[in-house]
Amino acid sequence: MKILKLIFxxxxxxxxxSFLTAVGIAIAIIAxxxxxxxxxxxxxxxxxxxxxxxxxxxxxxLTFPLPLAYREKIANVPGVSLVSYGQWFGAxxxxxxxxxxxxxxxxxxxxxxYPEFLLxxxxxxxxxxxxxxxxxxxxxxxxxxxxxxxxxxxxxxIFPGDWDFVIRGIFDGRDPATDETSMYFHWxxxxxxxxxxxxxxxxxxxxxxxxxxxxxxxxxVIKEVDALFENSLAETLTETEREFQLSFISMxxxxxxxxxxxxxxxxxxxxxxxxxxxVMTSRERIAEYAVLKTLGFRPxxxxxxxxxxxxxxxxxxxxLGLLVTMPMIKGFSIFLTQNLGSFFPVFEITNTTLALAxxxxxxxxxxxxxxxxxxxxxxxxxxxxxxxx
Amino acid sequence: xxxxxxSVSKSYKRGTQKIPVLQNINLAVPEGEFLALMGPSGSGKxxxxxxxxxxxxxDTGTVKVSGTDVTNLSESKLAGWRARxxxxxxxxxxxxxxxxxxxxxxxxxxxxxxxxxxxxxxxEAALDVVGLTDRMQHYPNQLSGGQEQRVAIARAIVTDPTxxxxxxxxxxxxxxxxDEVLTLLDRLNKEFKKTIIMVTHDPRAAEKxxxxxxFDKGVLE
Lengths: 389, 221
Ligand SMILES: Nc1ncnc2c1ncn2[C@@H]1O[C@H](COP(=O)(O)OP(=O)(O)OP(=O)(O)O)[C@@H](O)[C@H]1O
Ligand SMILES: [Mg+2]
Hints:
The structure holds two protein chains of two kinds. Chain A has helices at residues 2-11, 15-48, 70-75, 107-113, 121-129, 138-144, 187-197, 218-228, 241-249, 253-284, 286-294, 299-340, 351-378, 381-386; strands spanning 53-58, 66-67, 80-88, 102-105, 117-118, 133-137, 151-156, 161-173, 183-186, 204-205, 207-212, 236-240.
């Protein structure tokens, strides 16, 4: 008890110094929290992906189509429980800057394959019935103030023309990582129009979504699916959803690596800040430590004084940092959904980041206290006492 | 004899050079003695005091205090031994600035198994001896130098040590405060039968002591 009091009093001795050090730590923790959240936001798609779902696309590139006729063949591969398909639509809503992802999908199988999109039963039924209807994610709906029953028009770019839709459902994500910024509509709606206007493009899709019965079958199914279409006009490339998502991230991989490195550097900086304070502080107190040792206090007493102070400052700084980070990330999240929603569909601080930040602060407190403790413990009493006069 | 210093030598290394500080010192201090160690600056007074108090170890020779060979104890044993047997008084008082007078005096008792209540009793008794019960809640920077030194004396006697060592206890005080401190030490010796070894430059301080021993160039005269 007494030692806690002494730690507290020592920490409050140079209030400004301790405060500035804690603020330094807080700022670094804020930076750490933001950077980590950005990284997490990049990986959200990966985290949300299931490892029993596969994506099959044209082996040449994602922009090349696949024939719808592949569907039956894929469905017959042993271990495949369900096949759905979709097409990236990429149209414009009013203005270029209002980008959000749109997919033309086979609605029934798609919703079965993606149970993480939570849609009320009646909305789902209406959506399945009406050819020109669509469903949109909660965040997207909130952004444009859309309600069920609203209509809107997209201007096609990949598929030219005006495309009118009626919203029949607004889905919520089952998990925090589930994307709520996209729109899904009937592939048939797209195909019927193409059949009339661009015949050569009808009957084609962008990607197959495949559900595999069990994880053990994944590798075999991937091989067998791709083997089916080997040497055909449109060879396929099948990957797990996870690999598929990761292939997007690897494009920005260097940036992510840089951000990662910076988040570590930030921690190194607070280590230096705190270590500097602790070295300064314990140098001033050498004579006091010498007196304590003279009176019979042991190395562990001295250690708890120094570590106690160092960890107190680190934790106060860490908590202060997180206290500021959380509302900041909330604010960013609102800003991002309104402006860049589809880049970072989910921008939230994770428990892992919170835990990492506090662990980092704690570790910094421990490391920063180590050197002064070792030198105070090793110091000969007679030398310490001489430093008074 | 309470303290027995036998053929003790001590030298310090400065770089590669070895500087002899104490050469073959013999000193016996009987129980109840009030001894003053005098001598010019750098003659080794503090060094000898540190050896007797178990803060440092000699190169050769033995230091025995009430039968215990201090030179043979391990660091941790020595720390416990100091806490039980030695009361320390320093020239610059060396109080903890963040602790009140009461808490400073209580400090050595934290290493004992005394209850909070018992500690309070001991602290108040010690502060009573030095006449500072009314300053218990004051911090060192709210006390005069003389008062600080008296708090330090209370801290030195609160554990009822076998031996009190004082290194120039009046060295930083004006004449009046110095006299107060010396009178107090005298009282500790006479009334409370404390054995005291005091290093001093001050002839008046030496007068208070029963015996004065003079040091010169590491040799006791
Ligand atoms: N830790 C040390 N390292 C190196 N030299 C030391 C050390 N401690 C003491 N000395 C040297 O030993 C000699 C005796 O020192 P000591 O402190 O015992 O003298 P003193 O008699 O107490 O002097 P003063 O009256 O100035 O306090 C001095 O020359 C001093 O420089
Ligand atoms: Mg000295």
